[in-house]
């Protein structure tokens, strides 16, 4: 009888304990669910919250360079002019350029910008850009992992202002990339790469838009060779009047090197170096000039490199980049297929990237970026879209390499 009475007394206590456990479990599940909803709802703003801390750096669109905590946005405050976010609509960053009615071009067609978080150092940038590609013939280019920035003209001028000199040296493929840089700086889709004031014939007048890039033999004599070309003719053509940078193209396509051309290049690279301690950037381009001969291209670069390093004062930093010539097109045929064909250009780029690692030189591969294009009439030089892309790639490297990020 006593045991029955005790059991009846315990039953309500057990029921009460079970009820308490059940209520506690329900409260915990409700709390956890609400936390997950809060995190999910706010996760899309995580990037924006980080960027808001940089808001005080932007005053009337003036970019403050060299902030300490801007690594996420590309390791330099020159990139802070545009917030990183998943784009809702496409933006043509060339929309304000002159002569778009005569020479239609859109940044949307050149590259997919803003679809990935930006590269935080130059090594990540070079790997991502060299390994990117296109989804379909002539489609916009996509970087592989982290993304590159599309610099507006004033932001590009800020990047160039980090340097006393930006020297391009190489063959006609690199000359086209320099032309893309000039087009971006001049904001002129039709005449950006050429000195139209030097036209002497009806044939010269054809050197505009795509033809300025595709027909090297016709248009070489009309190409812009330096920022000084623009300033000497009309200072209003120069959108970077206060950058204080010497920027020029040095056409040295042959190997062995021509002594006269080399002396001219070394003199340009060392002029006034004693009076300006900002770094110097040298962008090399070779491949077609050496018929994709790795040994010849390596000796060509090494010879120029030795001359520059011996002539520049030891306390002036020198940043160097080799840009591969990219993929050749189906127009290369017959006897040139083995020496200049698609496989040859791919093998050459792979070998040059390995060589660059051995000699501690940055290498930007452009084979993947150009293999699915029909922009080039001869399969070698690329058109306006391809060279605007390469120019913007080089601009991203110039920004990140001179920022203490490796």
Descriptive tags:
two-stranded antiparallel ribbon; 2 domains; 15 helices; alpha/beta; single chain; 43% helix; 406 residues
What do these coordinates show?
- The protein has two domains: 2-43; 107-401, SGNH hydrolase (Rossmann fold, 3-Layer(aba) Sandwich), CATH 3.40.50.
- The longest helix is centred in the first third of the chain and has 42 residues, at 2-43.
- The chain is globular, with a radius of gyration of 28 Å.
- It starts with a helix and ends in a 5-residue tail after the last helix.
- It has 15 helices and seven strands.
- It is an alpha/beta fold.
- Residues 2-7 and 33-82 have low confidence and may be disordered.
- The strands form two sheets. Strands 4-3-5-6-7 form a five-stranded parallel beta sheet, with helices on both faces. Strands 1-2 form a two-stranded antiparallel sheet.
- Helix 11 (294-311) links the parallel strand 5 and strand 6.
- The relative contact order is 0.13.
């Amino acid at each position: 009888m006593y045991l029955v009475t005790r059991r009846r007394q315990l039953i309500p206590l057990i029921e009460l304990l079970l009820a308490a456990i059940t209520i506690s479990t329900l409260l915990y599940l409700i709390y956890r669910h609400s936390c997950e909803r809060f995190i999910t709802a706010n996760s899309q703003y995580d990037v924006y919250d980080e960027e808001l801390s940089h808001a005080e750096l932007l005053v009337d669109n003036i970019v403050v360079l060299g902030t300490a905590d801007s690594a996420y946005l590309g390791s330099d405050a020159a990139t802070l002019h545009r917030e990183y976010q998943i784009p809702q609509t496409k933006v043509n960053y060339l929309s304000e350029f002159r002569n778009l009615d005569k020479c239609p071009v859109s940044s949307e067609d050149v590259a997919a910008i803003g679809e990935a978080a930006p590269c935080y150092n130059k090594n990540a940038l070079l790997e991502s850009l060299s390994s990117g590609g296109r989804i379909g013939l002539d489609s916009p280019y996509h970087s592989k992992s982290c993304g590159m920035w599309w610099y507006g003209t004033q932001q590009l001028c800020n990047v160039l202002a980090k340097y006393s000199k930006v020297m391009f040296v190489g063959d006609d493929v690199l000359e086209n990339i320099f032309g893309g840089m000039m087009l971006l700086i001049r904001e002129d889709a039709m005449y950006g790469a050429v000195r139209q004031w030097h036209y002497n014939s009806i044939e010269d007048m054809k050197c505009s838009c795509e033809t300025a890039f595709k027909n090297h033999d016709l248009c070489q004599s009309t190409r812009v060779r330096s920022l000084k070309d623009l300033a000497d003719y009309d200072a209003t053509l120069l959108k970077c009047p206060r950058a204080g940078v010497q920027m020029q193209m040095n056409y040295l396509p042959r190997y062995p090197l021509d002594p006269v051309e080399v002396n001219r290049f070394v003199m340009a690279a060392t002029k006034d170096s004693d009076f300006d301690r900002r770094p110097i950037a040298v962008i090399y381009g070779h491949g077609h000039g050496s018929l994709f001969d790795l040994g010849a291209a390596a000796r060509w670069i090494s010879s120029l490199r030795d001359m520059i390093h011996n002539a520049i004062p030891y306390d002036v930093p020198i940043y160097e980049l080799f840009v591969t010539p990219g993929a050749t097109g189906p127009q290369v045929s017959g006897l040139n297929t083995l020496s200049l064909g698609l496989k040859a250009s791919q093998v050459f780029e792979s070998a040059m990237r390995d060589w660059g690692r051995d000699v501690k030189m940055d290498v930007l591969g452009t084979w993947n970026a150009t293999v699915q294009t029909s922009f080039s009439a001869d399969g070698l030089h690329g058109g306006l879209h391809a060279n605007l892309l390469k120019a913007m790639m080089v601009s991203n490297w110039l920004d990140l390499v001179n920022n203490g990020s490796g």
